[in-house]
Write a structure and sequence with these properties.
Heterodimer with OSBPL9. Plays a role in regulating ADIPOQ and FABP4 levels in differentiating adipocytes and is also involved in regulation of adipocyte triglyceride storage. Weakly binds 25-hydroxycholesterol. Interacts with OSBPL9 to function as lipid transfer proteins. It comes from Gymnorhina tibicen (Australian magpie). Among the domains are: 101 residues, Pleckstrin-homology domain (PH domain)/Phosphotyrosine-binding domain (PTB) (PH-domain like), CATH 2.30.29.30; 361 residues, Porin, CATH 2.40.160. Helix content is 30%, strand content 27%. The protein contains 15 helices and 30 strands. The strands form 7 sheets. Strands 15, 16, 17, 18, 19, 20, 21, 22, 23, 24, 25, 26 and 27 form a 13-stranded antiparallel β-sheet that branches. A 7-stranded antiparallel β-sheet has the order 4-3-2-1-7-6-5, with helices on one face. Strand 18 and strand 19 form a beta hairpin. Helix 5 runs parallel beside helix 14. It is globular, with a radius of gyration of 30 Å.
Length: 699
């Protein structure tokens, strides 16, 4: 092939935290299937500093930026490399992938398959009979006979021809049946006694057997691609064979130990067929839509996530998932089982953080810069409790790129705390705004309205933008968040990368803030949520800042959900307020004058958000987009929810593939790229500035 050329050049290679990135001269040796590197070009004739075998390797462009990529060898060794620009990265990645594919296929053609091995239950009667119990001296491992089918001596296994794939499929079907029998036998064991269904060795056997079957299915898929390439002559240039998602659906494969059949196409519900009818890449308008708050109705949905039954029933699925993960592994692209999902999108979860809009609006009513910062800290710390739906740790839906969520809140003006010192001036300014925006002199409403919009602006990496504003009080908040999930052993950590900015336009102040990390603990028993990390809130104009620590529970002793913080004046380094307590219970604020204030979060009034009915929502608005998944979860039908979710995710992959083939960039609807962040397309600070300019010109 013309693409099988030896290429060379300088790339940056990441060494370690101390040394960091270093320039090295890399050579791709296509004939040998090697990636070699040297200190510099002049040392090419010497022994290379490092060499990677590319057969069986995985070449992955990084989500960090457009320059970085990784080469993961089959041996487990990894090179993290960085090109000078996106074009050069694509050049290296495509050549490496072609070379990798060529040498991987060569190994598959020139080597016979490995000797097969199978696991069979000991002939001790039916698994349901009471006789299937071990003696006290019998171990969990010895309960099962592990047999190797040996081939007759002197006979060599013939190289498998493409027409033998039918036999392979039949053998794999038998293996899947044996694996199901194995799982049933384990789960039918008594809950107590010498040998139980919760024996750690048996749990590990269940997890690894499921992982093995998924791996075999992936290998079979690669064999099918090789068969297709042999029939067509060769694969087109640039084609790569990649590992797929598990062929055995995690949530579908077992439901409390019972084997589940995959639904036939003809038996799919009408809602799935409806989703599939729009599963083809669709050209929907990306023009921003102005949502009329009067069309929104008070939300009557109340999906609490307190059901623990599903987690106990799906223990084997969780163990299977854990068997595929490694410490520190990025979970962004890992497909999680459906039963652990909340009944809402991540975009709606961000909206639920604003369930106390009265505290949000009250920030700008603070009479001094100090009081406004303290009010913001109070609002910030009260937002996380209502953002969680129950004590159990469940995961919101991963938003699909282009997905949006709209809502609003209304609250009587009398419910919003004011400040006597600033009420007259604020009222005067409010009158000016009302007169300039309402020349017909209509009666001023007796309530404040806070409008919210969120959009999934990127898929890889997964970035969400959200914006909220209260026009009457001339305040708004704009934020973007990149959720990075990592596997930490018996817990999962989620880092919220990004920044938010609160704008108080009446005072000309901007408050920048970050978000804490979240952790799902005890994922093998009853998972629960914990927040951790340090966040900072700063206002450059006033010189006030806040430092807040979310404390994770120590291994021994200590309290859950503890938070501490302080507000200080940076110029004088004076602490004006301290806060301590639990972010989901009671917070104690101690002020510089000695006064103390307690806030019981469990007794704070929650303002229900207002959302348009489903029939008035667009096809990419969260609740309409995920409605069939949500309905199935409410009904407890995990299989149907999984199928609906799969259709939505497959549509996203198809559209992403089409954009890549046509080199069509994704166009966002409500948010615009601004440096490393995302900004709402029509923020309040721009409209207010334009209105003030127009008023000045008219005067």
């Amino acid at each position: 092939s013309d693409h099988m050329e030896n290429i060379y050049g300088y790339l940056m290679k990441y060494t370690n935290l101390v040394t960091g990135w270093q320039y090295r001269f890399f050579v791709l040796n296509n004939d040998a299937g090697l990636l070699e590197y040297f200190v510099n070009e002049q040392s090419r004739h010497m022994k290379p500093r490092g060499t990677l075998q590319l057969a069986g390797a995985v070449i992955s462009p990084s989500d960090e930026d457009s320059h970085t990529f990784t080469v993961n060898a089959a041996s487990g060794e990894q090179y993290k490399l960085r090109a000078t620009d996106a074009k050069e990265r694509q050049h290296w990645v495509s050549r490496l992938q072609i070379c990798t594919q060529h040498h991987t296929e060569a190994i598959g053609k020139n080597n016979p398959p490995l000797k097969s091995r199978s696991f069979s239950l000991a002939s001790q009667g039916s698994a349901n009979s009471p006789g299937v119990q071990r003696r006290p001296s019998q171990t969990a491992v010895s309960f099962f006979n592990v047999g190797h089918h040996r081939l007759p001596t002197g006979k060599r296994v013939p190289i498998m021809q493409p027409d033998h794939l039918v036999d392979v499929r039949e053998m794999m079907s038998q293996a899947e049946g044996q694996q199901r029998d194995l799982i049933r036998s384990i789960e039918c064991l008594p809950a107590s006694g010498h040998l139980t269904s919760l024996d750690q060795d048996l749990l590990m056997l269940k997890a690894t057997s499921m992982a093995t079957m998924n791996c075999l299915n992936d290998c079979f898929h690669i064999l099918q691609l090789q068969h297709a390439s042999q029939q067509k002559g060769s694969l087109p240039a640039g084609t790569t064979i990649s590992w797929l998602e598990p062929k055995i659906s995690l949530a579908n494969h077992f439901k409390n130990g019972a084997a589940q059949n995959f639904p036939a196409e003809i038996n799919k519900p009408a809602s799935v067929r409806e989703e599939q009818s729009i599963a083809e890449p669709c050209q929907l308008t990306r023009e921003p839509e102005e949502i009329n708050p009067d069309e929104e109705l008070e939300d009557i949905c109340d999906d609490k996530e307190d059901d623990l039954g599903a987690v106990e029933e799906q223990r084997s699925v969780i163990l299977h998932l854990l068997s595929q993960l490694k410490l520190g592994m990025d979970l962004t692209r890992v497909v999680l089982p459906t039963f652990i999902l909340e009944k809402r999108s991540l975009l709606e979860m961000y909206a639920d953080f604003m369930s106390h809009p009265d505290l949000f609006v009250a920030i700008t009513n603070g009479g001094t810069a100090e009081e406004r910062m303290i009010r913001f800290v109070e609002y910030y710390l009260t937002s996380f409790h209502e953002g969680r739906k129950g004590a159990i740790a469940k995961k919101p839906y991963n938003p699909i790129i282009g997905e949006t969520f709209h809502c609003s809140w209304r609250m009587p003006k009398s419910d919003v705390a004011t400040d006597a010192a600033s009420s007259s001036s604020a009222h005067s300014l409010s009158e000016q705004v009302t007169l300039s925006e309402d020349p017909e002199g209509q009666a001023e409403p007796d309530h404040y309205t806070v409008k919210f919009v969120a959009e999934q602006v990127s898929h890889h990496p997964p970035v969400s933008g959200f914006y909220a504003e209260c026009v009457e009080r001339k305040m708004c908040v704009n934020a973007h968040v990149w959720t990075k999930s990592k596997f930490l052993g018996m817990s999962i950590g989620v880092t919220m990368v990004g920044e938010g900015v609160l704008h108080l336009l009446e005072h000309g102040e901007e408050y920048t803030f970050s978000l804490p990390c979240a952790y799902a603990r005890s994922i093998l028993t009853v998972p629960w949520v914990e927040l951790g990390g340090k966040v900072n809130i700063n206002c450059a104009k006033t010189g006030y800042s806040a430092s807040i620590n979310f404390h994770t529970k120590p291994f021994y002793g200590g309290k859950l959900h503890r938070v501490t913080g302080e507000v200080k004046q940076n110029m004088t380094n004076t602490v004006v307020c301290r806060v301590q307590g639990e972010w989901n219970s009671v917070l104690e604020f101690t002020y510089s004058n000695g006064e103390t204030k307690y806030v019981d979060l469990t007794k704070l009034s929650v303002t229900r958000k207002r959302v348009r009915p489903l029939e008035k929502q667009g096809p990419f608005e969260s609740r309409r987009l995920w409605q069939h998944v949500t309905e199935s979860l409410r009904d407890g039908d995990i299989d149907k929810a999984t199928e609906h979710k799969r259709v939505l995710e497959e549509r996203q992959r198809n559209e992403e593939r089409l954009r890549a083939e046509t080199e069509t960039p994704w166009c966002t609807k409500y948010f615009l790229k601004d440096g490393d962040g995302w900004v709402y397309h029509k923020p309040l600070w721009k409209t207010v500035s334009a209105a003030q300019t127009q008023q000045t010109d008219s005067n």
